[in-house]
């Protein structure tokens, strides 16, 4: 996280009332950001957001009649089940 100084290209301007809450938030983030639990959840959220973004692209292009988005984080495990349920 930034140290709050305008050195180089870093830094920030924060209203005084937000300085302490933002410092607490930054400290909490720094404490958990490298844990396996956080990293696993972060990767799953990234996978889900990419899946939704791609589905939106397909929908806007009108290339597909049906779009299936799996947000479990491991869509490869569920492809067979989805195919069976959709009669394809």
TrEMBL record:
It comes from the Archaea. Keywords: Lyase, Pyridoxal phosphate. GO terms for molecular function: tryptophan synthase activity. Its cofactor is pyridoxal 5'-phosphate. SUPFAM superfamilies: Tryptophan synthase beta subunit-like PLP-dependent enzymes (SSF53686). GO terms for cellular component: cytoplasm. Its EC number is 4.2.1.20. This is Tryptophan synthase beta chain.
